[in-house]
Design brief:
The complex is a heterodimer. By secondary structure, chain A is mainly beta. Chain A is built from no helices and eleven strands. In chain A, a hairpin with a 5-residue loop joins β4 (31-37) and β5 (43-50). By secondary structure, chain B is mainly beta. The radius of gyration of chain B is 13 Å and the shape is globular. Classes of the chains: A mainly beta, B mainly beta.
Chain lengths: 113, 112
């Protein structure tokens, strides 16, 4: 049973470009969470999704950021018109239920140049 | 806002000794706590969890203690090994939400 898969592992974008981060949850998991981490800091919640639904996006900026978890395929975190301040590690986690153990992927490290 | 914090940013321990990593939380409504281990360049790895109806829970070489009176959580690692070197985070969930609230982390350094 493969773990949570994120790709790409590293992503470099120029300012103003779009970044698309993908997350495939563990088999059987229908709950996906996205977190952002700056160096030497803890993770900050961004968004929580279940299949085809955004349950809580309170941690995600209103502008430029969007997330989806379609019926088929991975969850996508999209950042439009990236700025240098978007540079961070973005982690995805999945769980079988809202209040069960969440497993994390290896993260996507976004660098905006 | 509510937050989870750690007392020590870095902890150095002799190989073979026991490690104790502490965490304070401020949301009295939190009822589920998790310890994660994060190695450099990797995602957080689940270590152990505990619910608020328990005071202690043991795993393999690890023990989590929860003191709800003073809102304190600790992770004890027995017979620390070089592979235990990592940053350790405590995280909490409240009874009304599902998002994890994370502390800043404690870096555990194992001295040979």
């Amino acid at each position: 049973n493969a773990g949570v898969m994120q790709n790409p592992r590293h992503l470099v974008r120029r300012r103003g470009q779009e970044a698309r981060l993908r997350c495939s949850p563990m088999k059987g998991h229908s709950h996906v969470y996205w977190y952002r981490q700056l160096p030497e800091e803890g993770l900050k919640f961004m968004v929580y999704l279940q299949k085809e639904n955004i349950i809580d996006e309170s941690g995600m900026p209103k502008e430029r950021f969007s997330a989806e978890f379609p019926k088929e395929g991975p969850s996508i975190l999209r950042i439009q018109q990236v700025v240098r301040g978007d540079s961070a590690a973005y982690f995805c986690a999945s769980s079988a239920g809202a209040r069960t153990e969440a497993f994390f992927g290896q993260g996507t490290r976004l660098t905006v140049v | 806002g509510e937050s989870v914090g750690l007392h020590l940013p870095t902890l150095s321990v002799q190989e073979g000794d026991n490690s104790i990593i502490n965490c304070a939380y401020s949301n009295s409504a939190s009822d589920y706590f998790i310890w994660y281990k994060q190695e450099s360049g990797k995602g957080p790895q689940f270590i152990i969890d505990i619910r608020s109806n328990m005071d202690k829970r043991q795993g393999q070489r690890v023990t989590v203690l929860l003191n709800k009176t003073v809102k304190h959580l600790s992770l004890q690692i027995a017979a620390t090994q070089p592979g235990d070197s990592a940053v350790y985070f405590c995280a909490e969930k409240g009874d009304s939400n599902y998002q994890l609230i994370w502390g800043a982390g404690t870096k555990l350094i194992i001295k040979p």
